[in-house]
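Example record

The entry below shows one chain as it appears in the dataset: sequence first, then structure tokens.
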Amino acid sequence: MCQQLVSKLEANHYTSEKKFIDDLDGNEMDYLDMVLENELDYAKNVQNDIRVQELNEVFEQLF
């Protein structure tokens, strides 16, 4: 799935994050949601507040 997302990014040359997100299908959204949850948990566990804030901003854009 990761390679599929990279290929999509390379092939489409999105002008914004929003346009990329709008082009994701359900499986791609589910995958990114899972990865984002794991990354958020890790950032919280190591008390990396800056990374938590950044990841929360990504989450808000996705959903």
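Notes for this example: The two ends are 19 Å apart (CA to CA). Residues 43 and 49 are 7 Å apart (CA to CA).
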